[in-house]
Amino acid sequence: xxxxxxxxxxxxxxxxxxxxxxxxxxxxxxxxxxxxxxxxxxxxxxxxxxxxxxxxxxxxxxxxxxxxxxxxxxxxxxxxxxxxxxxxxxxxxxxxxxxxxxxxxxxxxxxxxxxxxxxxxxxxxxxxxxxxxxxxxxxxxxxxxxxxxxxxxxxxxxxxxxxxxxxxxxxxxxxxxxxxxxxxxxxxxxxxxxxxxxxxxxxxxxxxxxxxxxxxxxxxxxxxxxxxxxxxxxxxxxxxxxxxxxxxxxxxxxxxxxxxxxxxxxxxxxxxxxxxxxxxxxxxxxxxxxxxxxxxxxxxxxxxxxxxxxxxxxxxxxxxxxxxxxxxxxxxxxxxxxxxxxxxxxxxxxxxxxxxxxxxxxxxxxxxxxxxxxxxxxxxxxxxxxxxxxxxxxx
Length: 395
What we know:
Elements: H1 2-16, H2 18-23, H3 25-42, H4 47-53, H5 58-70, H6 75-85, H7 88-100, H8 107-113, H9 134-161, H10 165-188, H11 191-208, H12 211-229, H13 235-238, H14 244-250, H15 263-276, H16 287-295, H17 305-313, H18 315-337, H19 343-364, H20 371-390
Helix pairs in contact: 1-5, 3-4, 3-18, 5-20, 6-9, 7-10, 9-10, 9-11, 9-19, 11-12, 11-19, 12-14, 15-17, 17-18, 18-19, 18-20, 19-20
């Protein structure tokens, strides 16, 4: 239902702004990229898989271009933040029910809702909630956590200036959501997401000039890393104070994996494929059958979006995609540097932090294969781009 709603809205925007959209150079670059991706399907090792793989990109290009025309004012961002973070609370509650009440959804309910709650999570023992795998929940909660933290700081700053009952109530709700997101992130056991949470904290601390918070975060992160990797140099003693869920996950004490399942094996495979076909690639969604043919292990993706794109679409298409995203983030950075501090600047900063975290997450994983996560990331980029491109200076 959400996808249908977004399609209707984006189609309406395209109809009302068609001339403006097609004359925009950035949009023209996206059009060229779309053509290159389609041409690459003809050179794919498995063409049918490649054509199906376009669904992970082309509809989102359409959505991005439309929403970029819709979201042009900083005031739109606060409302959008609420829309994005409110579902995270029930998502985490369902995750707790999944882990501790062994709750699952019957097949009929799955066909209605479009998602399935699997008892004990996927993989077992790690919260995945309504997502098909824990890593997708982890990046979703990392996004929600960062946006919630931005709203919390904005509301706290306003409440500190003058007592307001409504603002304090909003602050209470945001605190509940923030704590839920943090607890959910911990229970995903996603080391990538934990790192993103630390980066988000550090980014806000630097932005607001809170040196004490920077020192506190650095100290906590150092203690956790020391307990994880330096057990012969005092780490064993630190493990008495650091929660086991952190140091066992970071030190890989929880896992025993065959070499074919390691990220480095997948990355080396992708790099070899890039060298074999540097320009046209092997075709979207072709990593899985190619890797299985070599190793007898099936993987849906190689745990690095950028290496996957290089292997599947070639260097030219990959650089073009990263180029237009980089251009948007460059303009966003310039806008932030020239923006006098106010509430809107803090919220806009939270969006840039969120997207930067998504970029980092995709160095070690791939988020495009979950419809909801992929949609949210493109909406965030559209919000950043719409304001950065349409506002030469802050209002």
